Amino acid sequence: xxxxxxxxxxxxxxWTRQSRGTRRMSPSTTGxxxxxxxxxxxxxxSDRDVYPSAGVLFVHVLERESFKGEFPPYPKPGExxxxxxxxxxxxxxxxxxxxxxxxIQRTPYSDGVLYGSPTAENVGKxxxxxxxxxxxxxxxxxxxxxxxxxxxxxxxxLPYQAEFFIKNMNVEEMLAxxxxxxxxxxxxxxxxxxxxxxxxxxxxxxxxxxxxxPINDMKEGVYxxxxxxxxxxxxxxxxxxxxxxxRCSQEMEPVIxxxxxxxxxxxxxxxxxxxxxxxxxxxTYQEVIRGEGILPDGGEYKPPSDSLKxxxxxxxxxxxxxxxxxxALVLFLILAYVMCCRREGVIQLxxxxxxxxxxxxxxxxxxxxxxxxxxxxxxxxxxxxxEIIPPLHADNYESTNMPLMQTQQ
Length: 409
Known about the structure:
The protein is α+β, with helices and mostly antiparallel strands. Among the domains are: 48-150, Sandwich (Immunoglobulin-like), CATH 2.60.40.10; 160-277, no CATH class. Helices cover 28% and strands 18% of the residues. It has helices at residues 12-16, 27-44, 65-68, 171-174, 177-191, 234-237, 242-249, 260-263, 314-340, 345-368, and strands at residues 47-50, 58-62, 85-91, 101-104, 112-116, 127-135, 141-148, 160-166, 196-203, 222-228, 274-277, 380-381, 388-389. The longest helix is centred in the C-terminal third of the chain and has 27 residues, at 314-340. It is a single-pass membrane protein. This is Epsilon-sarcoglycan. Residues 49-157 form the Dystroglycan-type cadherin-like domain. Component of the sarcoglycan complex, a subcomplex of the dystrophin-glycoprotein complex which forms a link between the F-actin cytoskeleton and the extracellular matrix.
Protein backbone atom coordinates (compact mmCIF):
# COMPACT_ATOMS: atom_id res chain seq x y z
CA UNK A 1 0.00 0.00 0.00
CA UNK A 2 1.33 3.43 -0.95
CA UNK A 3 1.71 5.74 2.05
CA UNK A 4 0.96 9.45 2.06
CA UNK A 5 3.87 11.78 1.35
CA UNK A 6 4.18 12.95 4.95
CA UNK A 7 5.04 9.41 6.00
CA UNK A 8 8.31 9.82 4.09
CA UNK A 9 9.17 12.56 6.57
CA UNK A 10 8.43 10.29 9.53
CA UNK A 11 5.43 9.56 11.65
CA UNK A 12 4.45 12.66 13.68
CA UNK A 13 2.73 10.50 16.23
CA UNK A 14 5.94 8.60 16.79
CA TRP A 15 7.75 11.91 17.47
CA THR A 16 5.46 12.68 20.44
CA ARG A 17 4.81 9.05 21.43
CA GLN A 18 1.07 9.66 21.14
CA SER A 19 -1.51 7.35 19.64
CA ARG A 20 -2.65 8.02 16.11
CA GLY A 21 -6.14 8.71 17.36
CA THR A 22 -5.14 11.93 19.17
CA ARG A 23 -2.60 13.25 16.55
CA ARG A 24 -0.86 15.51 19.08
CA MET A 25 2.64 16.92 18.58
CA SER A 26 4.89 18.96 20.75
CA PRO A 27 5.48 22.63 19.82
CA SER A 28 9.06 22.00 18.74
CA THR A 29 8.03 19.01 16.64
CA THR A 30 5.18 21.00 15.08
CA GLY A 31 7.58 23.79 14.13
CA UNK A 32 9.99 21.32 12.55
CA UNK A 33 7.20 19.67 10.58
CA UNK A 34 5.78 22.98 9.31
CA UNK A 35 9.25 24.19 8.40
CA UNK A 36 9.79 21.06 6.33
CA UNK A 37 6.44 21.42 4.57
CA UNK A 38 7.11 25.13 3.93
CA UNK A 39 10.50 24.29 2.44
CA UNK A 40 8.90 21.81 0.05
CA UNK A 41 6.20 24.21 -1.13
CA UNK A 42 8.60 27.13 -1.33
CA UNK A 43 10.66 25.17 -3.85
CA UNK A 44 7.60 24.58 -6.00
CA UNK A 45 6.56 28.23 -6.12
CA SER A 46 9.97 29.89 -6.10
CA ASP A 47 10.76 32.51 -8.76
CA ARG A 48 14.06 33.35 -10.36
CA ASP A 49 15.17 36.66 -11.87
CA VAL A 50 17.60 36.93 -14.75
CA TYR A 51 18.97 40.08 -16.38
CA PRO A 52 19.93 39.56 -20.05
CA SER A 53 21.00 42.40 -22.35
CA ALA A 54 19.25 43.38 -25.55
CA GLY A 55 21.05 42.17 -28.66
CA VAL A 56 23.13 39.62 -26.76
CA LEU A 57 22.52 35.88 -26.73
CA PHE A 58 20.53 34.74 -23.67
CA VAL A 59 20.86 31.12 -22.50
CA HIS A 60 19.07 29.60 -19.49
CA VAL A 61 19.43 25.90 -18.68
CA LEU A 62 16.53 24.04 -17.03
CA GLU A 63 18.40 21.48 -14.96
CA ARG A 64 16.61 18.25 -14.16
CA GLU A 65 18.51 17.90 -10.90
CA SER A 66 16.88 21.02 -9.49
CA PHE A 67 13.40 19.60 -10.11
CA LYS A 68 13.93 16.01 -8.98
CA GLY A 69 13.46 16.89 -5.33
CA GLU A 70 10.05 18.43 -5.95
CA PHE A 71 8.20 15.31 -7.00
CA PRO A 72 6.75 12.99 -4.35
CA PRO A 73 7.88 10.66 -2.92
CA TYR A 74 10.62 13.11 -2.00
CA PRO A 75 14.10 11.58 -2.13
CA LYS A 76 16.12 11.35 1.01
CA PRO A 77 19.54 13.01 1.26
CA GLY A 78 22.03 11.07 -0.85
CA GLU A 79 19.33 9.19 -2.77
CA UNK A 80 19.60 9.32 -6.57
CA UNK A 81 16.56 9.20 -8.86
CA UNK A 82 16.57 9.21 -12.65
CA UNK A 83 12.95 9.83 -13.58
CA UNK A 84 12.18 11.13 -17.08
CA UNK A 85 11.31 14.82 -16.81
CA UNK A 86 10.07 17.15 -19.56
CA UNK A 87 9.39 20.87 -19.46
CA UNK A 88 6.73 23.15 -20.86
CA UNK A 89 7.50 26.86 -21.14
CA UNK A 90 5.09 29.68 -21.96
CA UNK A 91 4.62 33.37 -21.37
CA UNK A 92 2.38 34.00 -18.38
CA UNK A 93 -1.17 34.37 -19.62
CA UNK A 94 -0.34 33.06 -23.11
CA UNK A 95 -0.01 29.56 -24.59
CA UNK A 96 3.41 30.12 -26.18
CA UNK A 97 6.71 31.89 -25.59
CA UNK A 98 7.73 35.32 -26.90
CA UNK A 99 8.88 35.43 -30.51
CA UNK A 100 12.54 35.92 -29.64
CA UNK A 101 12.71 33.03 -27.13
CA UNK A 102 13.19 29.39 -28.16
CA UNK A 103 13.27 26.15 -26.19
CA ILE A 104 14.86 22.76 -26.87
CA GLN A 105 15.11 19.44 -25.05
CA ARG A 106 16.22 16.36 -26.92
CA THR A 107 15.15 13.59 -24.52
CA PRO A 108 13.35 13.41 -21.15
CA TYR A 109 16.72 12.48 -19.63
CA SER A 110 18.50 15.65 -20.80
CA ASP A 111 18.27 19.22 -19.58
CA GLY A 112 16.09 21.77 -21.32
CA VAL A 113 17.50 25.03 -22.66
CA LEU A 114 15.83 28.40 -23.18
CA TYR A 115 17.76 30.61 -25.59
CA GLY A 116 17.29 33.62 -27.81
CA SER A 117 18.27 37.21 -28.48
CA PRO A 118 16.11 39.88 -26.80
CA THR A 119 15.19 42.89 -28.89
CA ALA A 120 15.32 46.56 -28.01
CA GLU A 121 11.51 46.73 -27.93
CA ASN A 122 11.46 44.51 -24.83
CA VAL A 123 13.82 46.66 -22.76
CA GLY A 124 12.31 47.61 -19.41
CA LYS A 125 9.40 45.18 -19.72
CA UNK A 126 9.64 42.20 -17.34
CA UNK A 127 8.87 38.95 -19.15
CA UNK A 128 7.51 36.20 -16.89
CA UNK A 129 8.00 32.68 -18.26
CA UNK A 130 6.06 29.86 -16.62
CA UNK A 131 8.12 26.67 -16.45
CA UNK A 132 6.15 23.49 -15.80
CA UNK A 133 8.10 20.29 -15.16
CA UNK A 134 6.42 16.92 -15.77
CA UNK A 135 7.60 13.70 -14.17
CA UNK A 136 6.82 11.08 -16.81
CA UNK A 137 6.97 8.23 -14.31
CA UNK A 138 4.74 9.55 -11.52
CA UNK A 139 2.82 12.14 -13.60
CA UNK A 140 3.51 14.79 -10.98
CA UNK A 141 4.10 18.42 -11.93
CA UNK A 142 6.07 21.32 -10.52
CA UNK A 143 6.00 24.93 -11.62
CA UNK A 144 8.54 27.73 -11.49
CA UNK A 145 8.45 31.29 -12.77
CA UNK A 146 11.40 32.76 -14.62
CA UNK A 147 11.35 36.57 -14.60
CA UNK A 148 13.42 37.97 -17.48
CA UNK A 149 14.40 41.61 -16.98
CA UNK A 150 15.85 42.78 -20.29
CA UNK A 151 18.50 45.47 -19.90
CA UNK A 152 19.71 47.90 -22.53
CA UNK A 153 23.26 47.37 -23.84
CA UNK A 154 25.51 50.37 -24.36
CA UNK A 155 27.24 48.91 -27.42
CA UNK A 156 24.04 47.61 -29.05
CA UNK A 157 23.80 47.04 -31.89
CA LEU A 158 27.32 46.09 -32.86
CA PRO A 159 27.89 47.48 -36.36
CA TYR A 160 29.74 44.50 -37.88
CA GLN A 161 27.92 41.16 -37.75
CA ALA A 162 28.95 37.81 -39.19
CA GLU A 163 26.85 34.66 -39.28
CA PHE A 164 28.61 31.28 -39.47
CA PHE A 165 27.09 27.91 -40.33
CA ILE A 166 28.67 25.07 -38.33
CA LYS A 167 27.96 21.65 -39.79
CA ASN A 168 29.19 19.36 -37.03
CA MET A 169 27.16 20.81 -34.16
CA ASN A 170 23.62 20.64 -32.84
CA VAL A 171 22.05 23.65 -31.23
CA GLU A 172 22.08 22.25 -27.69
CA GLU A 173 25.77 21.32 -28.07
CA MET A 174 26.58 24.82 -29.25
CA LEU A 175 24.66 26.41 -26.38
CA ALA A 176 27.01 24.83 -23.85
CA UNK A 177 29.10 27.57 -22.28
CA UNK A 178 32.47 25.89 -22.89
CA UNK A 179 31.72 25.09 -26.57
CA UNK A 180 30.41 28.57 -27.29
CA UNK A 181 33.41 30.05 -25.51
CA UNK A 182 35.79 28.03 -27.68
CA UNK A 183 34.05 29.22 -30.83
CA UNK A 184 34.12 32.88 -29.78
CA UNK A 185 37.81 32.47 -28.95
CA UNK A 186 38.52 31.14 -32.44
CA UNK A 187 36.56 33.99 -34.03
CA UNK A 188 38.41 36.52 -31.90
CA UNK A 189 41.78 35.19 -33.02
CA UNK A 190 40.74 35.60 -36.64
CA UNK A 191 38.89 38.91 -36.31
CA UNK A 192 40.86 40.66 -33.54
CA UNK A 193 38.03 42.90 -32.26
CA UNK A 194 37.89 44.84 -29.01
CA UNK A 195 34.32 43.75 -28.24
CA UNK A 196 32.85 40.49 -29.47
CA UNK A 197 29.44 39.12 -28.50
CA UNK A 198 27.31 36.21 -29.58
CA UNK A 199 24.10 37.73 -30.91
CA UNK A 200 21.97 34.75 -31.82
CA UNK A 201 22.02 31.00 -32.37
CA UNK A 202 19.56 29.25 -34.68
CA UNK A 203 19.17 25.60 -35.55
CA UNK A 204 19.37 24.69 -39.23
CA UNK A 205 15.96 23.03 -38.88
CA UNK A 206 14.46 26.45 -38.13
CA UNK A 207 15.92 27.72 -41.42
CA UNK A 208 14.29 25.02 -43.52
CA UNK A 209 17.02 22.40 -43.17
CA UNK A 210 16.35 18.68 -43.31
CA UNK A 211 16.56 16.28 -40.41
CA UNK A 212 19.88 14.41 -40.78
CA UNK A 213 20.03 10.68 -41.26
CA PRO A 214 20.68 8.68 -38.06
CA ILE A 215 23.98 7.32 -39.38
CA ASN A 216 27.57 8.22 -38.62
CA ASP A 217 26.37 10.53 -35.85
CA MET A 218 25.36 13.22 -38.33
CA LYS A 219 24.44 16.67 -36.99
CA GLU A 220 21.70 19.02 -38.08
CA GLY A 221 23.94 22.11 -38.14
CA VAL A 222 23.61 25.45 -36.39
CA TYR A 223 23.84 29.12 -37.39
CA UNK A 224 25.82 31.36 -35.02
CA UNK A 225 25.74 35.14 -35.40
CA UNK A 226 28.44 37.21 -33.73
CA UNK A 227 28.97 40.96 -33.65
CA UNK A 228 32.07 43.08 -33.29
CA UNK A 229 33.07 46.75 -33.22
CA UNK A 230 35.80 46.61 -35.89
CA UNK A 231 35.56 45.92 -39.65
CA UNK A 232 35.85 42.39 -40.96
CA UNK A 233 39.31 40.90 -41.22
CA UNK A 234 40.96 39.99 -44.50
CA UNK A 235 40.41 36.30 -43.78
CA UNK A 236 36.64 36.75 -43.56
CA UNK A 237 36.69 38.90 -46.70
CA UNK A 238 38.23 36.03 -48.66
CA UNK A 239 34.76 34.55 -49.04
CA UNK A 240 33.80 37.46 -51.31
CA UNK A 241 36.63 36.75 -53.79
CA UNK A 242 35.44 35.87 -57.33
CA UNK A 243 37.39 32.62 -57.24
CA UNK A 244 35.70 31.48 -54.03
CA UNK A 245 32.31 32.62 -55.29
CA UNK A 246 32.84 30.51 -58.40
CA ARG A 247 33.83 27.49 -56.34
CA CYS A 248 30.72 27.92 -54.17
CA SER A 249 28.51 28.10 -57.26
CA GLN A 250 30.04 24.80 -58.38
CA GLU A 251 29.39 23.27 -54.92
CA MET A 252 33.10 23.14 -54.19
CA GLU A 253 34.76 24.12 -50.95
CA PRO A 254 36.34 27.60 -51.09
CA VAL A 255 39.96 28.25 -50.13
CA ILE A 256 40.08 30.13 -46.80
CA UNK A 257 43.43 30.70 -45.12
CA UNK A 258 42.04 30.80 -41.56
CA UNK A 259 39.87 27.71 -41.89
CA UNK A 260 42.46 25.55 -40.11
CA UNK A 261 41.97 27.61 -36.94
CA UNK A 262 38.36 26.37 -36.78
CA UNK A 263 38.73 22.92 -38.32
CA UNK A 264 40.18 21.35 -35.16
CA UNK A 265 36.73 21.60 -33.48
CA UNK A 266 34.28 23.36 -35.80
CA UNK A 267 33.56 22.46 -39.41
CA UNK A 268 32.34 25.71 -41.01
CA UNK A 269 30.55 25.96 -44.34
CA UNK A 270 32.21 29.09 -45.74
CA UNK A 271 29.79 29.29 -48.66
CA UNK A 272 26.98 30.08 -46.21
CA UNK A 273 28.76 32.77 -44.23
CA UNK A 274 26.96 36.12 -44.11
CA UNK A 275 28.75 39.44 -43.49
CA UNK A 276 26.56 42.43 -42.58
CA UNK A 277 27.91 45.95 -42.24
CA UNK A 278 25.35 48.07 -40.35
CA UNK A 279 27.30 51.26 -41.03
CA UNK A 280 26.60 51.07 -44.78
CA UNK A 281 22.91 50.32 -44.51
CA UNK A 282 20.73 53.32 -45.27
CA UNK A 283 17.79 53.73 -42.98
CA THR A 284 14.47 53.75 -44.82
CA TYR A 285 12.57 55.25 -41.91
CA GLN A 286 11.24 58.76 -42.56
CA GLU A 287 9.89 60.92 -39.84
CA VAL A 288 6.34 62.10 -40.40
CA ILE A 289 6.20 65.88 -40.76
CA ARG A 290 2.94 67.35 -39.59
CA GLY A 291 1.10 69.04 -42.42
CA GLU A 292 2.20 66.58 -45.17
CA GLY A 293 -0.32 63.88 -45.84
CA ILE A 294 -2.55 65.00 -42.96
CA LEU A 295 -5.98 66.33 -43.75
CA PRO A 296 -6.67 69.88 -42.55
CA ASP A 297 -9.11 70.49 -39.78
CA GLY A 298 -12.57 70.73 -41.33
CA GLY A 299 -14.42 71.73 -38.22
CA GLU A 300 -17.25 69.90 -36.56
CA TYR A 301 -18.74 66.95 -38.39
CA LYS A 302 -22.24 67.60 -39.70
CA PRO A 303 -24.20 64.49 -40.67
CA PRO A 304 -26.79 64.72 -43.48
CA SER A 305 -30.30 65.73 -42.50
CA ASP A 306 -33.16 63.25 -42.20
CA SER A 307 -35.36 65.15 -44.65
CA LEU A 308 -33.93 63.61 -47.81
CA LYS A 309 -36.11 63.24 -50.91
CA UNK A 310 -37.02 59.70 -51.80
CA UNK A 311 -36.00 58.54 -55.26
CA UNK A 312 -37.98 56.20 -57.50
CA UNK A 313 -35.81 53.48 -59.01
CA UNK A 314 -38.67 51.81 -60.97
CA UNK A 315 -37.78 53.55 -64.23
CA UNK A 316 -34.09 52.77 -63.84
CA UNK A 317 -34.92 49.12 -63.25
CA UNK A 318 -37.05 48.89 -66.39
CA UNK A 319 -34.43 50.60 -68.54
CA UNK A 320 -31.70 48.33 -67.18
CA UNK A 321 -33.74 45.18 -67.80
CA UNK A 322 -35.92 46.01 -70.84
CA UNK A 323 -33.32 47.45 -73.22
CA UNK A 324 -30.95 44.42 -73.11
CA UNK A 325 -33.95 42.08 -73.42
CA UNK A 326 -35.26 43.89 -76.52
CA UNK A 327 -31.87 43.84 -78.20
CA ALA A 328 -31.51 40.11 -77.47
CA LEU A 329 -34.98 39.40 -78.92
CA VAL A 330 -34.21 41.27 -82.17
CA LEU A 331 -30.94 39.38 -82.59
CA PHE A 332 -32.77 36.09 -82.01
CA LEU A 333 -35.36 36.84 -84.70
CA ILE A 334 -32.70 37.80 -87.23
CA LEU A 335 -30.79 34.61 -86.56
CA ALA A 336 -33.95 32.50 -86.88
CA TYR A 337 -34.80 34.09 -90.23
CA VAL A 338 -31.32 33.47 -91.60
CA MET A 339 -31.20 29.86 -90.42
CA CYS A 340 -34.73 28.82 -91.47
CA CYS A 341 -35.86 31.03 -94.36
CA ARG A 342 -32.67 31.86 -96.19
CA ARG A 343 -30.94 28.52 -96.36
CA GLU A 344 -29.00 27.96 -99.58
CA GLY A 345 -28.99 24.23 -98.98
CA VAL A 346 -32.69 23.81 -99.87
CA ILE A 347 -32.02 24.23 -103.62
CA GLN A 348 -29.12 21.82 -103.43
CA LEU A 349 -31.28 19.22 -101.72
CA UNK A 350 -33.97 19.50 -104.45
CA UNK A 351 -31.37 19.14 -107.19
CA UNK A 352 -29.84 16.11 -105.49
CA UNK A 353 -33.27 14.50 -105.15
CA UNK A 354 -33.96 14.97 -108.87
CA UNK A 355 -30.66 13.37 -109.80
CA UNK A 356 -31.31 10.42 -107.51
CA UNK A 357 -34.78 9.92 -109.00
CA UNK A 358 -33.43 9.97 -112.56
CA UNK A 359 -30.75 7.45 -111.67
CA UNK A 360 -33.34 5.06 -110.27
CA UNK A 361 -35.47 5.30 -113.42
CA UNK A 362 -32.46 4.50 -115.63
CA UNK A 363 -31.65 1.42 -113.53
CA UNK A 364 -35.25 0.16 -113.85
CA UNK A 365 -35.19 0.68 -117.60
CA UNK A 366 -31.89 -1.19 -117.96
CA UNK A 367 -33.38 -4.27 -116.31
CA UNK A 368 -36.26 -4.51 -118.82
CA UNK A 369 -34.37 -4.02 -122.06
CA UNK A 370 -34.23 -6.94 -124.56
CA UNK A 371 -31.13 -7.86 -126.50
CA UNK A 372 -30.14 -10.75 -128.72
CA UNK A 373 -28.68 -13.68 -126.93
CA UNK A 374 -25.21 -14.79 -127.94
CA UNK A 375 -24.88 -17.92 -130.06
CA UNK A 376 -23.20 -19.75 -127.25
CA UNK A 377 -26.40 -19.51 -125.24
CA UNK A 378 -28.73 -20.93 -127.92
CA UNK A 379 -29.97 -24.55 -127.63
CA UNK A 380 -27.72 -27.09 -129.38
CA UNK A 381 -27.73 -30.82 -130.04
CA UNK A 382 -25.73 -33.18 -127.89
CA UNK A 383 -23.05 -34.70 -130.11
CA UNK A 384 -23.54 -38.19 -128.67
CA UNK A 385 -27.19 -38.58 -127.81
CA UNK A 386 -28.61 -36.02 -130.22
CA GLU A 387 -30.78 -34.45 -127.52
CA ILE A 388 -31.41 -30.72 -127.41
CA ILE A 389 -29.55 -29.05 -124.55
CA PRO A 390 -31.27 -26.05 -122.91
CA PRO A 391 -29.41 -22.75 -122.76
CA LEU A 392 -27.17 -22.02 -119.82
CA HIS A 393 -29.33 -19.17 -118.66
CA ALA A 394 -33.03 -18.81 -118.17
CA ASP A 395 -35.11 -16.27 -120.03
CA ASN A 396 -35.48 -14.09 -116.97
CA TYR A 397 -31.71 -13.92 -116.44
CA GLU A 398 -30.42 -10.35 -116.20
CA SER A 399 -28.43 -9.81 -119.36
CA THR A 400 -26.51 -6.90 -117.97
CA ASN A 401 -24.56 -9.26 -115.71
CA MET A 402 -24.09 -11.97 -118.36
CA PRO A 403 -20.47 -12.54 -119.45
CA LEU A 404 -19.64 -12.53 -123.13
CA MET A 405 -17.82 -15.90 -122.96
CA GLN A 406 -19.45 -18.82 -121.23
CA THR A 407 -17.51 -21.37 -119.24
CA GLN A 408 -17.38 -24.74 -120.99
CA GLN A 409 -19.05 -27.54 -119.15
